[in-house]
């Protein structure tokens, strides 16, 4: 550029524009860069808005490039500023306020906006899109005041909005014109599986419904459909699609169809002006996914910096998403047609589905549901128009090598292939970081390149690249700690605590060399648990290292009130206790009393300052509904009352609950006891499930009825109540000693292995007795937290009398 710094103006501060700028900065320092963004924020990850909505991330968490990044790279940033048009004659960009900025080159990256259905009532109060932080904030506020929401649109945005609103406590119905969810990315089979999973999570659906009108006064009150049926709703999210934001291009006289028309080097019809991202139309196609915009940006960056590059010829569209905890993927063609050869496998128990489409034996498309391990490999094979072979079939469908699939290979991935779709990080960028900067862990790669920084879906591929580049050095070099504060694993930390006699979290962090002296919300609760598990007699529980529910001994609700759950052993209570619960609920204006799935009563809506008095007047033990501990032991009526019952399940359930309550565990823990194999207490989905039979009891472990459901595995059969209790204690203690913090037994069983658990707990009588001795010792040092809190007047004043508490340790 002959030493002259050209003036580059970027119109749009989103992911497409700034990722292009990042690529340019890697190639040259020859531009004086100015960025205009309509929103009052630095560049953030729009893909992560659903996490902000559900409350698991803040706005700060999803910022990709903070204000310091712009300063460090000499970029002039104008936030909250909209460009009205380009004055090509004077080569100036003009803002709505009349500010003029000269340019040599321009990149338009204005993205897209929500499409609002032009039906009567669309402009009523309470109707929003879901596209930016402002929309997200409106939804968060609405959830505080209103209860019934309708989300129009069963695509990705609609489902993410629905997920977030359900998490906020709203009753949500997704209204979709088509009969299949995400019909542009998934085939009917995967769509049906997705719908069933989301229904299990509390989202309702009205399929094949055409919205004709939004009804109500000033504020929306419901939807009227084409068949004249009505759905009540006091809040409506429009998520029916997006439209390219082409206003600045139209006002500047550029060629615009649906999007801003560009050639294969992203050049618009106006000299020196380029366009990337969702606002762009290339060869008649506007892309609404992130991977194409990163591919466009890499080619434009090279072209604008006069670096030789192949032209952009379009993208093989693929979609890899995690929707409400469910992994889905599609690439290329995904709907069957007569000219396709279809390879498919569906597993109802694991809730997984895989389909590969061939045309003339060439791979042209794929759909994955539940398990997306093969997504990178399939995307590469389809992009390369690979022919199917017997070996490839065996690898992809798991029919070779004894039924085990080969791990997806990264060796043949192109250097410019995108690994992290959220942040546009290529394989080449990751390889360069490993080889040139000596990086050896996922966390280091995340900090350096941004890969895995957002949804984390690319982590397995990043690990494969580490393995590929580092070879035998990967295991030691890429070892992952329990969090970013340390490289030490769970087992190493526990060993060090035992060997060095460490007593407090601060002591652990100091002695073991934490990079963050105060730790983080991930490691502090874990260390506090490990210390208590190792030395239950001497460890002083650190309330500041617990989450808010555990500090307050009650479950905090979204309105700031709390839910109190008294213990009901085995789901059994007395008329006197029920009357006490009713009287206290009336006295303290409890909003609702709910029967839970664990056969207890939730007192919902207790004010923080009333908690101690409610506990005192209930005079019942804490139900530990907030704790990483034994929550409930669910029972059927068993042989006491049921004509099918073979064992006294109520008595056994109450006995087990009384024995093992209050003990800290790696994660929440649930049990169930059935009096016969009819399974009325649902033992098959509990951490420990017990089923009575004529000869005694059968013991199951590792069940989970949550987002990642898992049927429990049969561990053993026993004949006596005494042996059953001993086995339950040994299993719980073995889980306490070997489980990772926050690891449910469903994950623990799969990691440790059922045979290993059986060999330690069932077959080895000496080890079983030792485990039982250790759990008895720990049980001897627990007490009811409500009674403990009532004795501590100073603690009551600090926690419950108007002082705000952080939701994280």
From TrEMBL:
Positions contributing to [4Fe-4S] cluster binding: 636, 642, 676, 680
Q: Name one Pfam family in it.
A: Pyr_redox_2
Cofactor(s) required for function per UniProt:
siroheme; [4Fe-4S] cluster; FAD; [2Fe-2S] cluster
**The FAD/NAD(P)-binding domain, residue ranges:** 7-282
Please tell me whether the keyword Transport is annotated for this protein: no
Residue ranges annotated for the Nitrite/sulphite reductase 4Fe-4S domain, each copy included: 627-767
Question: What sequence ranges are listed for the domain Nitrite/Sulfite reductase ferredoxin-like?
Answer: 557-619
Give the record's pathway: Nitrogen metabolism; nitrate reduction (assimilation)
Its domain of life?
Bacteria
Provide one Gene Ontology biological process annotation.
Answer: nitrate assimilation
Task: Check the record and name the InterPro entries matching this protein.
Answer: BFD-like_2Fe2S-bd_dom, BFD-like_2Fe2S-bd_dom_sf, FAD/NAD-bd_sf, FAD/NAD-binding_dom, FAD/NAD-linked_Rdtase_dimer_sf, NasD-like, NiRdtase/SiRdtase_haem-b_fer, Nit/Sulf_reduc_fer-like_dom_sf
Q: Name one GO molecular function term.
A: nitrite reductase activity
Annotated NADH-rubredoxin oxidoreductase C-terminal domain residues: 318-386
Residues recorded as binding siroheme, renumbered to this chain, are 680
Spell out the PANTHER family in the cross-references: NITRITE REDUCTASE (NADH) LARGE SUBUNIT
Q: Which family does it belong to?
A: Belongs to the nitrite and sulfite reductase 4Fe-4S domain family.
Protein name (record) = NAD(P)/FAD-dependent oxidoreductase
